[in-house]
Design brief:
Blueprint: E1 2-4, H1 8-22, E2 32-34, H2 52-58, H3 91-120, E3 129-132, E4 139-144, H4 147-160, E5 165-170, E6 172-174, H5 178-185, E7 190-195, H6 207-216, E8 224-229, H7 239-242
Parallel strand pairs: 1-2, 4-5, 4-7, 7-8
Antiparallel strand pairs: 1-6, 3-5
Helix pairs in contact: 1-3
Length: about 240
């Protein structure tokens, strides 16, 4: 799984949520908690470090050998970890199990985001995406990572100028929130997807633009997609360019 964070606080919060998501028996997948190089990785801001008792009330207790049999060494039940799986063996089945777990993770991500808000009071949308002023919008800016904060200001500025613009912050690239993107794309005429990476030779723009277009490929009556690329390599994105 891959989650994108917009602030230092969100990085901390996402790590806490990751334990509850990744260690769920129906998921059991590794996860990247991604954030912007230089903009976040080389800067500092105040972060609320929660009380350990409160964190313990949010995170489930570590299961025993009956709950997590794959994590306990038992000579009566030998297991192999990290060994080569040949194509003639269970490689295909193994990859399918990973895919199925990734799909199941969507609902777990959403439920954990709700639990997190109840205990800590910080909202991250439905967990997979976070909308900002999308009600009545004619244009939706699809964005991820730390640019989301700048985009919020750009949306506010454009709204003051009379433009009906909103923002959709992608919190996860994997699993990709296909259903959420389809629902949003049915409500606005145009979605502009802002990538901070290139996809050399691709006709669809950046990698996230490709994901959005693929999600909407077979769906009728959805928004036109306008790919954009900005802020490569951590370069600063000017406010007027944003707007």
């Amino acid at each position: 799984m891959t989650a994108f964070c917009a602030t230092h606080q969100e990085i901390y919060d996402e790590v806490l949520m990751s334990y509850k998501i990744c260690e769920d028996y129906d998921v059991l997948l590794p996860k990247f908690v991604a954030y912007g190089g230089f903009i976040l990785s080389h800067t500092s801001k105040p972060v609320i470090i929660e009380d350990q008792d409160l964190v313990d009330s949010f995170l489930p207790p570590l299961p025993d050998e009956k709950g997590w049999p794959h994590m306990w060494i038992d000579p009566e039940r030998p297991l192999m970890f990290g060994n080569l799986i040949m194509p003639s063996g269970f490689y295909y089945e193994f990859r399918m199990k990973i895919h199925d777990a990734m799909v199941r993770a969507k609902e777990k991500i959403k439920s954990v985001a709700k639990d997190f808000e109840k205990i800590f009071g910080r909202n991250y949308g439905n967990g997979l995406i976070q909308e900002y002023k999308m009600d009545g919008a004619d244009v939706g800016m699809v964005i991820y990572g730390d640019l989301a904060l700048q985009m919020e200001q750009a949306v506010d500025d454009l709204r003051e100028e009379g433009y009906k613009v909103g923002m959709v912050k992608l919190r996860y690239l994997r699993p990709f929130p296909v259903e959420d993107i389809i629902e949003i794309a049915k409500k606005v005429p145009l979605l502009s997807v802002v990538d901070r990476a290139t996809a050399f030779g691709s006709p669809t723009g950046g990698p996230v633009s490709c994901e959005v277009k693929t999600a909407l490929h077979d769906v009728k009556g959805t928004a036109r997609i306008l790919p954009m690329i900005n802020g490569l390599g951590g370069r600063e994105v000017k406010g007027r360019i944003q707007a």
